[in-house]
Amino acid sequence: MSIRRISAIVLRQFYLLRGSPARLLPIIAWVAIDIVLWGFITRYLNAIASSGFNFVSLLLGAVLFWDFCSRIMHGVTTAFLEDVWSRNFLNIFATPLSIPEYLAGLVITSFATGLMALVVMLVLAATVFGLSFFVYGAALIPFLRVLFLFGIAIGIVGCAIVLRFGPASEWLVWPIPALLSPLAGVFYPVATLPQWMQYLSRLLPPSYVFEGMRTIVSGGGAPGSTLVWGGCLAALYVLLACWLFTRTYRLAVRTGLIARYSAESVG
User: Fold this and answer.
1) DSSP letter at 61?
2) Exposed, middle or buried, 210 (CB in 10 Å: 0-12/13-18/19+)?
3) Residue 220's pLDDT is what?
4) Residue 104 contacts by C-beta under 8 Å, 6 or more apart in sequence?
5) Is the pLDDT of residue 263 over 70?
6) Which one of 51, 61, 153, 265 has the minimum C-beta count within 10 Å?
7) Which of 97, 24, 73 is nearest to 249 (CA)?
8) What does the alpha-carbon distance between residue 155 and residue 52 come to, in Å, rounded to a whole number?
9) Cα radius of gyration rounded to whole Å, the chain
């Protein structure tokens, strides 16, 4: 892979964000709204709970982690859709750019925007609601790594869906995090789910993250073995997602579907 070609994809996204502040606003606004909304919900629950249990670290922390995963996913798909909306996708692949280089550029862009959203969420959660993850130190890094990999995987799958079924199918992509959240056990233990749903939950890497996070918040040790399993699953899904996108791209080229992403097809 060529570092220069990967950098070109990243640089294009940087210019798009720099040239249009409206593109930056959703990155910050939605996560800020989530943190504020759930922050006040947790305050209310703390006020009415008789057990003295602190809901802030549990629920608000879960929202923060899940929003980070969703931002990573949306970062990949939005960067891809910028090329779809501008009908520039076919022009990009008229160059020597390869699929791994293109996906690597999307991943780096997503990492940058996801990190920006994470910083905003951490600052809001710490300053307004007193939630600080810094007390856990480096123990948080494996959790974020699993969520990052899984976000990349579902983001690439979302790109493959749009590439296969056309630009209108982007509405099938945005709800993916919401559809997966019940199975991921974001707000409750996986044991709460019916047995058949628990089997599906164990196939999702985030379920291991949130189960582990609840263990740490309740005073237990870091669940190393479960996080390793979740990380392996996430890495496997990234590989499968890249395979799916590559296969879908080749199908689009072979059948001529790729032409609908050309500016010449307008009108």
Assistant:
1) H
2) buried
3) 65
4) 1, 6, 9
5) no
6) 51
7) 97
8) 39
9) 20
Kindly state the percentage of the chain with pLDDT values over 90: 27
Residues 6+ apart with CB under 8 A from 151: 68, 69, 70, 71, 72, 73, 75, 76, 110, 114
Cα dist from 55 to 50, 84, 126, 196, 238, whole Å: 12, 42, 14, 28, 33
The 10s digit of each residue's pLDDT in 218-258 is: 766 666 778 888 899 999 999 999 999 999 989 988 887 77
Cβ(121)–Cβ(29) below 8 Å: no
69 residue type, one letter: C
The model's pTM = 0.88
The mean pLDDT value for 87-99 works out to 81
Phi and psi, residue 246, nearest 5°: -60, -45
Query: Which CB contacts under 8 angstroms, 24+ apart, belong to 131-134?
Result: 131/39, 131/56, 131/57, 131/60, 131/61, 131/64, 133/61, 133/64
In DSSP notation, 107-172 reads HHHHHHHHHHHHHHHHHHHHHHH----GGGGGGHHHHHHHHHHHHHHHHHHHHHHHHHH-GGGGGG
From residue 227, alpha-carbon distances to 72, 187, 204, 211 in Å are 19, 18, 12, 9
Show the tokens assigned to 141.
């890094």
Contact 248, 160 (CB under 8 A): yes
Query: Of the candidates 234, 92, 216, which has an alpha carbon nearest to the alpha carbon of residue 152?
Result: 234
Give Cα separations from 43 to 2, 47, 214 (angstroms). 50, 6, 18
What SS3 state is found at 2?
Answer: coil
Tokens of 254: 């072979």
